[in-house]
């Protein structure tokens, strides 16, 4: 009468990496590849940022995902990073899209009375 209960866990196959060490090695390789391409990106795109700012932004983007431990997620991020690099190197990505990495994500809060009044805070 009762149906057999099946296990809720399923073994998933990794996308690219079999171990965390292999995934880490691929991430470091991708980081170094991006780092080496920064001077060429600066030469191909006319963007108002320095080489040091590009290096800092690259470091920031990689540290943003530093706490990811799932191999499949790491592999997907690697695929996305490689695609992004290919788009930038082939100049398929417009400079305005590239500059979105440097735009402020939070609007600065108004400091003086007139700015607060015009923004609707007071």
From TrEMBL:
Keyword Electron transport: yes
Top-level taxon of the source organism: Eukaryota
Record keywords: Electron transport, Membrane, Mitochondrion, Mitochondrion inner membrane, Respiratory chain, Transport
GO cellular component, one term: respiratory chain complex I
One annotated GO biological process: response to oxidative stress
Subcellular location field: Mitochondrion inner membrane
Pfam family, one: Complex1_LYR_2
Membrane topology: Peripheral membrane protein
UniProt entry tagged with the keyword Mitochondrion: yes
Family the UniProt entry places it in: Belongs to the complex I LYR family.
Protein purpose: Accessory subunit of the mitochondrial membrane respiratory chain NADH dehydrogenase (Complex I), that is believed to be not involved in catalysis. Required for proper complex I assembly. Complex I functions in the transfer of electrons from NADH to the respiratory chain. The immediate electron acceptor for the enzyme is believed to be ubiquinone.
Subunit annotation: Mammalian complex I is composed of 45 different subunits.
Record's protein name: NADH dehydrogenase [ubiquinone] 1 alpha subcomplex subunit 6
Organism this protein belongs to: Tetragonisca angustula
Lineage, opening ranks: Eukaryota, Metazoa, Ecdysozoa, Arthropoda, Hexapoda
């Amino acid at each position: 009468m009762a149906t057999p209960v099946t296990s809720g866990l399923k073994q998933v196959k990794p996308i690219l990496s079999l171990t965390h060490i292999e995934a880490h090695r691929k991430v470091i390789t991708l980081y170094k590849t991006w780092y080496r391409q920064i001077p060429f990106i600066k030469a191909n795109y006319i963007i108002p940022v320095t080489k040091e700012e590009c290096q800092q932004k690259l470091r920031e983007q990689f540290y943003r995902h530093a706490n990811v431990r799932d191999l499949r997620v790491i592999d997907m991020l690697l695929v996305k990073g490689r695609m992004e690099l290919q788009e930038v190197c082939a100049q398929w990505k417009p400079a305005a899209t590239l500059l979105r990495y440097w735009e402020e994500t939070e609007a600065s809060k108004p400091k003086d009375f007139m700015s607060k009044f015009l923004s609707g805070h007071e």
